[in-house]
Amino acid sequence: MELRCNLLASLLDDLDEERKLTVFDAGSATPETVEFFSNYKCRLHFSDLFSREALGCLEGELTEAELLNHFQELLSFPTSTSFDVCLLWDVLNYLNEPALNAFTKVLSRYLNSDTRIHGFATLKPSTPFPNQVFSLVKINTLKLKTRSAAQFPYYLHSQLTLNNTLSGMKVGKATLLANGLLEISFNKIPDH
Length: 192
Fold this sequence. Notes:
This protein has about 190 residues and is of the alpha/beta class. Helix content is about 25%, strand content about 30%. It has helices at about 5-10, 30-35, 50-55, 65-75, 95-105, 160-165; strands spanning about 1-5, 20-25, 40-45, 85-90, 110-120, 130-140, 140-145, 170-175, 180-190. The strands form two sheets. Strands 3-2-4-5-9-8 form a six-stranded mixed sheet, sandwiched between helices. A hairpin with a 5-residue loop joins strand 8 and strand 9 (about 180-190).
């Protein structure tokens, strides 16, 4: 299935193919996403945050320090790393509020004021939330495939909750898509 994403297109539209880019993808490497970014001079960082290693331990009660340590291990990039593009996909939906805060606190270390951050949220329990893998096919088109692993518990986060919980970023623009997902572009908060 394909999904058209206008906010994603607006974030990626003016990327310079000649400028070196550093891209963070919260998912695993997909052939389509790798192919899309092969048109750019860039370094891709895939974190596979949808894995049992990344999300499995979050099913228990962890302290703030344990959560921070967990995400520091998962996002252990060189300190000089600065992402130009962050593709969060729907990973924020799999994080409860304490985990959401810890994840974005660690991620924000690698963001700059020009980082283009994109993701999805679901707001209503009635909205189907499929267990899917996202691949970037075109600047405004994603390919969605069913993830083979079992789906982890997920959490509904309103825009207000996201803005109150995220560390170092906030909701910039949001658009409700035909499939019920909320497409979101995030802005880096200065001095975080």
